[in-house]
Amino acid sequence: MDILFLCLKIFFVRIIDVSLGTARTIIMVRGKGFVASIIGFFEVFVWFLIVREALNTTESGLFIAISYSLGFATGTYIGSIFSEKFIESNLSIEVITEKKELADKIRKKNYGVSVLNVNGQEDVQKYMLVIEIKNKKLESLKKLIDELDKKAFVMIKETKLVQNGYFK
């Protein structure tokens, strides 16, 4: 029973520390080093406590290693979901379309849209719509674009900094 409790403890604590590590990495890449360093402190503190306990046990090493590894894998998955849901970011959406009216229809839904004239492969006049949004609005914008132009070519990139412009 002691080995089961220890394995469960290692599994769940690894989920916590790896999820913190995933969030810390994403926050650091977005230029928020101070917040990332605070998260890093707690991440390593939790990791140290559980590693010390795992290495100092007299129980079977195989079950400890499996619990440790499963906790790492699960923590990576949960950390990525957590990051998508709770860490705000800016996204740059580029839409290439033949429908010039698409920009106006998207603007009517309170998105800021810049339009560039571009040429397609067949020298056909096309339009590139550039839209900056918060990541929380991505699904609704993708759905809107798909409803208005199923053939639109859409590229999504994460933006590190947005200065000025139109945000609703």
Describe this structure in words.
With 168 residues, this protein is of the alpha+beta class. The chain has 5 helices and 4 strands. The radius of gyration is 23 Å and the shape is elongated.
Question: Quick gist of this model?
Answer:
With 168 residues, the protein is an alpha+beta fold. The chain has helices at 2-29, 33-55, 61-86, 101-107, 138-148, and strands spanning 90-97, 114-119, 125-134, 153-159.
What is the secondary structure topology, with strand pairs?
Elements: H1 2-29, H2 33-55, H3 61-86, E1 90-97, H4 101-107, E2 114-119, E3 125-134, H5 138-148, E4 153-159
Antiparallel strand pairs: 1-3, 1-4, 2-3
Helix pairs in contact: 1-2, 1-3
Largest sheet: 4 strands, antiparallel
Order of helices and strands: HHHEHEEHE
Q: What oligomeric state do these chains adopt?
A: single chain
Number of helices: 5
The mean pLDDT is 86
Helical proportion? 55-70%
Strand content is 15-25%
Number of strands: 4
Distance, first to last CA: 56 Å
Radius of gyration: 23 Å
| Low-pLDDT windows of residues | none
By helix and strand content, what is the structural category? alpha+beta
**Based on CA inertia axes, which overall geometry fits?**
elongated
Which sequence of strands runs across the widest sheet? 2-3-1-4
Task: Name some characteristics of this structure.
168 residues; alpha+beta; 18% strand; elongated
